[in-house]
């Protein structure tokens, strides 16, 4: 069952949201609801499996066996773009 929620936002921001919703062929209500769902319930990341070929190519790096490649990448990009 759906229920109604009223929010107060800046008119210029509302116009931006409406344009984004229209571009995605959604109503403003659907667009905002989906954005809130993604914020509250983020999509779980799939575990990345590194192929033996790639591991062979990177054997000189001496990475720990239990490294999470995606977390390492996200962290490195965060540091790079601070």
Spatial separation of the terminal alpha carbons:
43 Å
User: Kindly state the mean pLDDT as a whole number?
Assistant: 84
What fraction, in percent, of the residue positions are helical? 40-55%
Structural Rg: 21 Å
Quote the beta fraction.
under 5%
Structural class by helix and strand composition:
mainly alpha
Task: Please mark out the parts with pLDDT under 50 across 5 or more consecutive residues, or reply none.
Answer: none
The dominant shape is elongated
Number of strands: 0
What report would you give on this structure?
This protein has 82 residues and is an all-alpha fold. The chain is built from 4 helices and no strands. Helix content is 54%, strand content 0%.
Provide a quick synopsis of the model:
The chain is an all-alpha fold and 82 residues long.
Walk me through the topology.
Layout: H1 11-23, H2 28-40, H3 52-57, H4 69-80
Short descriptors:
4 helices, single chain, 0% strand, elongated, 82 residues
């Amino acid at each position: 069952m759906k229920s109604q929620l009223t929010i107060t936002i800046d008119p210029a921001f509302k116009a931006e949201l409406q344009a984004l919703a229209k571009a995605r062929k959604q109503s403003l209500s659907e667009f905002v609801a989906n954005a809130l769902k993604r914020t509250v319930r983020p999509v779980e990341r799939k575990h990345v499996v590194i192929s033996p070929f790639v591991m062979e190519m990177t054997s000189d790096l001496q990475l720990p066996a239990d490294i999470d490649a995606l977390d390492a990448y996200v962290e490195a990009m965060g540091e790079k773009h601070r």
